[in-house]
Specification:
It comes from Kitasatospora camelliae. GO terms for molecular function: oxidoreductase activity. Pfam families: ADH_N (PF08240), ADH_zinc_N_2 (PF13602). This is NADP-dependent oxidoreductase. It is a single chain. With 311 residues, the protein is α/β, with parallel strands linked by helices. Helix 7 links the parallel strand 12 and strand 13. The longest helix has 14 residues. It has 9 helices and 16 strands.
Length: 311
């Protein structure tokens, strides 16, 4: 089968569409015929080796972890899935920018409801489930205020909407060009990070500080700066790692990998199908342009998700 492949840790422009063995289903697994695959920042780090200490890659590496497709083979011990079922899921380093991939039955795989096309379905799993896990980990509640830094990215797209749906007051970062879009997602206010210091502008609008900071951009000591936007005793949550302790009693919460509960992905898919969860597709590429899709994802400001369709 054809797949987008890295043969070693390498620059993104050296990716190629190459022949690799078609996967087979082991115990607890299903093989999927891929319809669409979405890109995530971790894909870029796996290719270049920027995250090899935390996430070492096996080569050849097939790019992509989010998928929508149909079940083409069912492995031993799998129940609930049959040939031809339409699904969406997260496949990890099995790779999804390919004609076929393999997925493990469990919370990271779900049936695709009617009304949810493959392109939007592929854009949900990693970003959507990460947003769910971030808000759950920090215990965001109705009536609280939250600052979302990185609101126009893949995870931010869902974090803003889910926080709003929980009843929180959302302040989100966005350029002037993206401000109306982010407000449509559910943000009560936006902060233009190109025109003002995000923390100072947030504190001007919420003088006591927000209850929760969701930082999807900064890492390391940069998160200590973001934490200044939280009220004393508030919380900061990030999918990247930072200081073990923060000033003023702000509690840091880090999730290096998302751990969804059963039903999380099904819930996101249902919301997307009925229109209560917006799935923003910033760019869409055919399989033959997959190398360009990765380059554009890495080098351009693209609102929402980048998806590659596979014939």
């Amino acid at each position: 089968m054809k797949a987008l492949v890295a043969t070693e840790y390498q620059p993104l422009d050296r990716l190629t569409l190459a022949d690799v063995p078609t996967p087979s289903a082991g115990p607890g697994q299903v093989v999927l015929k891929v319809e669409a695959a979405a890109l995530n920042p971790l894909d870029l780090m796996l290719v270049t080796g920027a995250a090899k200490e935390l996430y070492p890659a096996e080569h050849p590496l097939v790019v992509g972890m989010d998928v929508a497709g149909t079940v083409a083979e069912v492995g031993p011990g799998v129940t609930g899935y049959t040939l031809g079922d339409r699904v969406l899921g997260f496949v990890g380093q099995a790779g999804s920018v390919a004609e076929y991939t393999v997925a493990t039955a469990g919370p990271r795989l779900a049936h695709r409801p009617d009304g949810l096309d493959g392109v939007r379905a592929a854009a949900i799993p990693e970003s959507g489930m990460t947003a769910v896990c971030l808000l759950r980990a920090v215990g965001l509640r109705a009536g609280e205020s939250v600052l979302v830094i990185g609101a126009t990215g893949g995870i931010g797209l869902y974090a803003v909407q889910l926080a709003h749906a929980l009843g929180a007051r959302v302040v989100a970062t966005a350029t002037e060009a993206d401000a109306s879009y982010v407000r449509e997602l559910g943000a009560a206010e936006t902060v233009d990070y190109r025109a003002a210091d995000v923390v100072e502008e947030t504190l001007r609008r919420v003088p006591d500080g927000v209850d929760v900071v969701v930082d999807l951009v900064n890492r390391g000591e940069g998160l200590a700066g973001s934490a200044r936007a939280a009220l004393p005793g508030g919380r900061l949550v990030s999918p990247l790692f930072g200081p073990a302790a923060l000033d003023r009693g702000v509690t840091p919460v880090y999730i290096g990998s998302f751990d969804p509960e059963p039903g999380d992905l099904e819930d996101l898919a249902r919301r997307a199908a009925d229109g209560s969860l917006r799935v923003e597709i910033g760019a869409r590429y055919p399989f033959t342009d997959a190398v360009r899709a990765v380059a554009d994802f890495a080098g351009k400001h693209i609102r929402g998700k980048v998806v590659v369709t596979v014939p």
